[in-house]
Specification:
Elements (H helix, E strand, L loop, with lengths): L14 H10 L6 H11 L13 H10 L5 E8 L4 E8 L4 E10 L8 E6 L3 E3 L8 H4 L2 E4 L2 H15 L6 H6 L3 E4 L9 H12 L11 E5 L3 H9 L5 E5 L5 H7 L2 H4 L2 H15 L4 E6 L7 H14 L2 E6 L13 H13 L4 E3 L13 H10 L10
Parallel strand pairs: 4-7, 7-8, 8-9, 9-10, 10-11, 11-12
Antiparallel strand pairs: 1-2, 2-3, 3-4, 5-6
Helix pairs in contact: 1-2, 5-7, 8-11, 12-13
Bound molecules: S-adenosyl-L-homocysteine and iron/sulfur cluster.
The site of S-adenosyl-L-homocysteine has 17 residues, from strand 8 and strand 10.
Length: 376
């Protein structure tokens, strides 16, 4: 479904594109820098706030651009470490933005790593069998301005009083593009959003602190390797053989392991940095020690870090999380093989932390999505 906002979204503009629009309307090009400053350094939420601009220019801005592409409709704080923000877009679509606070080892107790997790699509077309985002299918891609607006809303929420968005964002250690949707299927809008996030005139957030997670869109992994901004890559593997991966990830039929793994290798060789292999542990699907051994081999070959995630229950799906003993045995195989691996006992289970679940629940309540039968 296509959605074209009535007006262009201000957060979708780059310095260059804004400059062009200003010049075309007879304004001075340097105003573009002032406007970006208001948006990202001083955190204006409307044209009215931009007090060093002339009245006619403020009126032009207000008329030309949409300043509020996303409105928070629900804010779920878990007792645990994950907070979820449900945002409503101009067409009433819902997306999730998540804040994760993970305590840091060896540092004072109040010191935690802060991560923002953003969405790139409404729903997802890739239909992984364990995932809430894939359950209701793909609705649409997000616009650049809707991706950037997620950072702005997080900054507002974190501290409504601090005047500077970029400073607020700097308190975050990492950004992960792991929310709803397949980021590499909305490639151009995402790259533009990350350009705005990364730019000095924008939110000034380092590319090396940004991780993009993909279910394995091979041609786009090669494209990403060629991007000048050096993002990190996380690959959602979830199966160490085609047979297992295919059962839960339809995308594997299009890009099986013999194509996917060389793409991952090319990426990591180009960047000279470790990629992460995400592996959700699902009982009797991919949690055997044989899978662990095969995964260890893949990880060693790619010189990759493995992130094990015990399956997070999704309403309507009857997959089961393996016992803790099985999880431990699995990670031990990796460690014994000399692979760097972490077992992430899940965060924020009590607020439906697995991506896409909060939206699914809300849309079901609103009657926008029919409940699905068990097992997708
Ligand atoms: N589409 C991209 C990014 C979004 S999904 C991708 O698939 O990588 C982000 C991560 O959440 C993926 O690793 C995905 O496999 C994982 N995930 C999805 N559903 C989950 C669940 N029920 N429990 C645990 N992790 C889940
Ligand atoms: Fe889409 Fe990722 Fe969920 Fe698969 S795991 S359905 S690719 S969001």
């Amino acid at each position: 479904m296509k959605y074209t906002p009535d007006k262009p979204l201000i957060y979708g503009e780059t310095l260059e594109s804004l400059r062009e629009r200003l010049v075309a309307s007879g304004e001075k090009p340097f105003r573009a820098g002032q406007i970006m400053d208001w948006l990202y350094k001083k955190r204006a939420s409307s044209a009215e706030d931009m007090t060093n601009l002339s009245k006619p220019l403020r009126a032009w801005l207000a008329e030309t651009f949409e300043f509020t592409p996303a409105t928070p409709v629900l804010d779920k704080r878990s007792g645990d470490v994950t907070d979820k923000l449900l945002l409503q877009l101009g067409d009433r679509s819902l997306i999730e933005t998540v804040i994760i606070r993970a305590p840091q080892k060896g540092v004072g107790q109040d010191k935690s790593r802060k991560t923002i997790c953003i969405s790139t699509q409404v729903g997802c077309a890739f239909g992984c069998k364990f995932c809430a985002s894939g359950l209701a299918g793909w609705k649409r891609d997000l616009h650049t301005g809707e991706i950037v607006a997620q950072f702005i809303e997080v900054c507002r929420r974190e501290d409504p009083n601090t005047p500077r968005a970029s400073e607020e964002l700097a308190s975050f250690d990492n950004l992960v593009v792991m929310g709803m949707g397949e980021p590499l299927a909305n490639y151009d809008a995402l790259m533009r959003a990350l350009t705005i996030l990364n730019a000095e005139w924008g939110l000034n957030f380092g590319a090396r602190r940004i991780t993009i997670s993909t279910s394995g869109l091979v041609p786009r992994i090669y494209d990403l390797a060629d991007e000048p901004m050096g993002f990190r890559l996380a690959l959602s593997l979830h199966g160490a053989t085609d047979e297992v991966r295919e059962q839960i990830m339809p995308v594997n039929r299009k890009w099986p392991l013999k194509e996917l793994l060389p793409a991952a290798k090319a990426f990591s060789e180009k960047h000279g940095r470790m990629i992460t292999l995400e592996f959700i542990l699902i009982q009797d699907i991919n949690d055997s020690l044989d899978q662990a051994q095969r995964l260890a081999k893949i990880a060693r070959n790619l010189h990759a870090h493995v992130n094990l995630i015990p399956y997070n229950t999704v309403q309507g799906l009857d997959w089961i999380r393996p016992s803790e003993a099985q999880q431990d045995a699995f990670v031990q195989v990796l460690h014994e093989a000399g692979v760097s691996a972490t077992l992430r006992r899940e965060k924020g289970h009590d607020i439906n932390a697995a991506c896409g679940q909060l939206r699914l629940q809300e849309e079901r309540e609103r009657g926008q999505i029919e409940p699905v039968p068990a097992k997708g």
